[in-house]
Specification:
- With 479 residues, this protein is an alpha/beta fold.
- It has 12 helices and 20 strands.
- It has 3 domains: 8-52 and 173-249 and 346-385, FAD/NAD(P)-binding domain (3-Layer(bba) Sandwich); 104-168 and 251-343, D-Amino Acid Oxidase, subunit A, domain 2 (D-Amino Acid Oxidase, Chain A, domain 2, 2-Layer Sandwich); 405-478, no CATH class.
- The chain has helices at residues 21-32, 51-54, 71-99, 120-133, 171-184, 232-237, 310-323, 369-385, 405-420, 429-447, 452-463, 470-478, and strands spanning 14-17, 37-40, 49-50, 58-59, 106-114, 139-141, 157-168, 188-191, 195-200, 206-210, 219-221, 223-226, 250-260, 269-271, 282-285, 291-294, 298-300, 332-343, 350-353, 359-363.
- Strands 3, 4, 5, 6, 7, 13, 14, 15, 16, 17 and 18 form an 11-stranded mixed beta sheet that branches. A 6-stranded mixed beta sheet has the order 8-2-1-12-20-19, covered by helices on one side.
- Helix 1 links the parallel strand 1 and strand 2 (37-40).
- The longest helix is centred in the N-terminal third of the chain and has 29 residues, at 71-99.
- It is globular.
- The N and C termini lie far apart (52 Å).
- The protein binds glycine.
- Glycine (GLY) binds at residues 56, 58, 64, 254, 279, 294-295, 341, 367.
């Protein structure tokens, strides 16, 4: 535990920067532990680009498992996700009590295997194993029993799994409840402004600077928690006097849609397994009768684009219709959202003190931010109030080994090929030929020191050495 009395000129014990679900949950948990919290970040506004408000909020410890994940990875990630899911059972009631909002979970998740995926039967096995291995139920069903499922004739469903231990929550309602709870809390002050950086202040504490006209308040605190998601790169750039030694934070752009008057009964969420570097298609029922439809995932060089590209929206609507329900096409499209999921090179979050112990980070939750929020909030509150804290796998100072391009090509090119040549049941010879061709071309280019596009491929890879970058490599190659 760090001393809270550093002599800084401040009333707050901690500043929490960022008003996505991780920032709000962390601020609330710290305040509930008796700390005086100064929250910094947009409270008003549309929040376009924020991952939390674009999320379907599937609380999915098991159905985000992929058959290709190593057993160690599954054990680590599922263990953390189960712990987070368990916290929800007390967290939502306390938010309900604090705010009077009728927040509720919609229990259960249907996962369907379709011919739109590469080996979905294997994916369902991996998901069922993960659930059963953690003492949870995974029931096999005939796809005909899945309420709301009615895929296109070109895309047959051939298996279904019911996971009663999973659930969904309305992300907009949850964010509204956290906002109310923080406004109502006597220990919380909220500066509704975008933070631009940190600098040391007299007395050993820190000052958070904010965007806006001269006179925009600065916030001083002895410790600061960064929960700014993909805004981390800019915030670190604006904190040049501090050495935080943070690893890169990448952005996975997600597009989702809200539909009304869809003529289907949808008592629980229905999803496919993971697909094409993303979490597959999912339909999530909301209490107001709308249906949430998610989601794309594309590595983005920046989070500047705040609206869906037409092709992203077209892909989302078409794929969800084909794989899950053509009835979606009869609904009204009442809104779209864009959210940039923050993720690290090892795809695990960063949680805890940085190289500068006054600065903590809580971010990098990628596709599981809504689920992990109460867990990360507890971890950060522990770091702020306990000494020592229980060990966890998300230490931001851990060594992170970048992926190597040859192995990544070997492992992931079939997924990239699926984007061009969607599989129908089993991979076709054409897919194998295309994968081989791309493999040879990209490897050859990356190794060819003289080829001008080779340099560009290597530069693209150095900036983001993760499987999700293969799409950008291909674009570089084809240019
Ligand atoms: N886990 C759902 C998503 O990231 O879209």
């Amino acid at each position: 535990m760090l001393p809270t009395d550093t002599g800084a000129d401040t009333r707050a014990d901690v500043a929490v920067v960022g008003t996505g679900v991780i920032g709000l949950a962390t601020a609330w948990e710290a305040a509930r532990r008796g700390l005086r919290v100064h929250l910094v970040g947009p409270c008003s506004g549309a929040h376009q680009g924020q991952a939390s408000r674009a999320a379907g909020a599937m609380l999915a410890p098991f159905s985000e498992v992929a058959a290709s994940d190593s057993p160690e990875r599954v054990a680590l990630e599922v263990g953390e996700r189960v712990a987070a899911r368990n916290l929800y059972d007390a967290w939502l009631p306390s938010l309900r009590e604090a705010t009077g909002r009728p927040l509720a979970l919609t229990p259960g998740m249907w996962v369907v295997a379709t011919t739109g995926g590469r080996g979905d039967a294997r994916e369902l096995d991996a998901i069922a194993d993960a659930a059963l291995g953690h003492g949870h139920v995974a029931e096999r069903h005939d796809p005909g029993e899945v309420p709301g499922l009615s895929p296109a004739r070109s895309c047959t469903a051939h298996g279904a799994l019911w996971l009663p231990g999973e659930a969904t929550v309305d992300s907009g309602e949850l964010m509204a409840a956290l906002t109310d709870a923080l406004h109502a809390h006597a220990h919380v002050e909220w500066t509704d402004a975008e933070a631009t950086g940190l600098r040391p202040s007299d007395g050993g504490g820190l000052t958070v600077t904010c965007a806006g006209a001269p006179g925009t308040p600065e916030v001083a605190a002895p410790r600061v928690v960064l929960a700014v998601g993909v805004g981390l790169t800019d915030l670190v750039a604006g904190s040049g006097e501090l050495d935080l030694a943070l690893p890169p934070m990448l952005a996975g752009k997600g597009v989702s849609a809200l539909l009304r008057d869809v003529p289907v009964e949808l008592p629980a969420a229905v999803r496919t397994p993971m697909r094409d570097f993303a979490c597959g298609m999912h339909l999530v029922p909301r209490a107001d009768g709308t249906v949430y439809l998610g989601a794309t995932n594309r590595l983005s060089p920046s989070a500047a684009v705040r609206f869906p590209l037409v092709m992203e929206l077209a892909d989302l609507l078409r794929e969800a219709g084909e794989e899950l329900s053509t009835k979606l096409y009869e609904g009204q499209l009442v809104g779209t959202r864009v959210g940039y999921r923050p993720f690290t090179l090892d795809h695990l979050p960063l949680v805890g003190p940085t190289a500068d112990p006054r600065v903590l980070i809580a971010s990098g939750t990628y596709r599981n931010g809504m689920l992990l929020a109460p867990r990360l909030a507890e971890m950060i509150a522990d770091h702020l109030t306990l000494d020592p804290v229980a060990a966890h796998p998300f230490d931001p100072t851990r060594p992170i080994t970048p992926h190597a391009l040859p192995e990544t090509l070997e492992r992931w090119l079939p997924e990239l090929v699926d984007l061009f040549l969607p599989p129908s049941g089993t991979p076709t010879p054409m897919q194998g030929v295309l994968a081989d061709l791309l493999h040879q071309s990209l490897r050859g280019l990356a190794a060819d020191g003289d080829h001008p596009r080779g340099a560009e491929v290597r530069r693209t890879w150095q900036q983001a050495p993760v499987p999700e970058a293969l799409w950008s490599l291909l674009v570089t190659y084809l240019r």
